[in-house]
Amino acid sequence: MQLIITGGTVVTASTVTRADVGIDHGRIVAIGTDLGAADQILDASGRLVLPGGVDPHVHLDTPVMGTVTADDYPSGTIAAACGGTTTVIDFCFQMPGERLQDALAGWHRRADGRSAIDYGFHSVVADPRPEVLDELESLPAQGISSFKLFMAYRGALQVDDWAMLRVLEIAQRRGALVLVHAENAEMTHLLQQRLLAAGQTGPRSHLVSRPPLVEVEATHRAIALAELVAAPLYLVHMSCGAALDELVRGRARGVRVVGETCPHYLVTSTADFDRPGFEAAKYCYSPPPRQPGDQQRLWQALADGTLHAVGSDHAPFNFVGQKDLGRDDFTRIPAGAPGIEERMIMLYQGVVAGRLSLSRFVDLVATTPARLFGLAPHKGSIAPGADADIVLWNPHATLTLSPDVLHQRVDYTINHGRTVQGLPETVLLRGDVIVRGRQYVGTLGSGQFVRRGPPVL
Ligand code: MN
Ligand code: MN
Description:
Blueprint: E1 3-6, E2 9-11, E3 16-18, E4 20-24, E5 27-32, E6 40-43, E7 48-51, E8 53-58, E9 63-64, E10 67-68, H1 73-82, E11 85-92, H2 100-111, E12 118-124, H3 130-136, E13 146-150, H4 161-174, E14 177-181, H5 185-197, H6 204-208, H7 212-228, E15 233-235, H8 241-252, E16 257-261, H9 263-267, H10 292-304, E17 309-310, H11 343-352, H12 358-372, E18 390-400, E19 419-429, E20 432-436, E21 439-440
The structure holds manganese (II) ion (MN) (2 copies).
């Protein structure tokens, strides 16, 4: 064998076991004791041995509202690796008039040969012309087994119910999964126009223009559309208890709908909009932060299986030079927050606090996202035959978060000053050590595009 990881506690979505892990040719070949000889031994005493994280929701090198996300593939995937994530799925945006194939070629140019970890693409359908829908039929066979639709962003990314039904039908027929950003674009637009007319141009208006009702209405509608055509549905970045109620009701009716939340909804709230000056712009993402009671509902839903996955929705914009594009008009603040490196660390705080079991943590950050997006059995689990994407996690290490201790190429973190417990120390990608002691030691470009299979719900 190439490598044996000895003395650690192996955590999967269903088990926590003291065991050694044998690796050969980049794959896990044995789990147990007395595995024999190897070229190399990695001592994992006192460490948790986790599957590499699978982040199903990131935005790298992506044009947004007249600017571009602060992280590109090199910087963003190094940050992801340092946070324990070994596979990301990025959103390939279609520009108006563009073919999906050309959009995908553009995303390959951004990523190929420049990534620290493995990656795949969701295909965003923003201009659903008939020939684009024809194109969509062929994407699953090319390893693009998920499509993204926006109900938000009027006049830009928003698609109407007819287009949603058509895309859901294709996904149902071809074995793909549709992801939906569920916010009612017209409701937000009305509130934005009123706020601007009243001279309420500051960042707090971002919050006021996107109340829970905006998310709840769209969540209900997305589930109903999927129900009509018997298609599976993945709701991204669910933020509040009232939207979770729609998810629960849909599942009770038999709809194959699953939900994702993001760490920022677990740790930020409307109170962050009380910060002085323009500071609140750091918390302008869509949907916006909610009430403390919603945070409790989300934690409970993560623990009891109502929610299925945690994505970072990494959409980094520098506070100076990017967020301030909207200093005089909140509708021009690029929406999003960084978090690709902090995703697993922040969710692990739920383990520290006794809200989540170790296995549930692994399931939410790796195993279920891998399964839903057609990456299983190679990704998301520690099992014979799986890629040796492995994290040695120190459950006792602590760190006080700030931009200085993170690798994300952005000038702030929403977790600034928070002291966290539990950190990834050593990260392997297909058997090679790429992070040691929170430093990236891999070779950029060793990350590979992953052709994904059909979703398993
Ligand atoms: Mn979104
Ligand atoms: Mn997003």
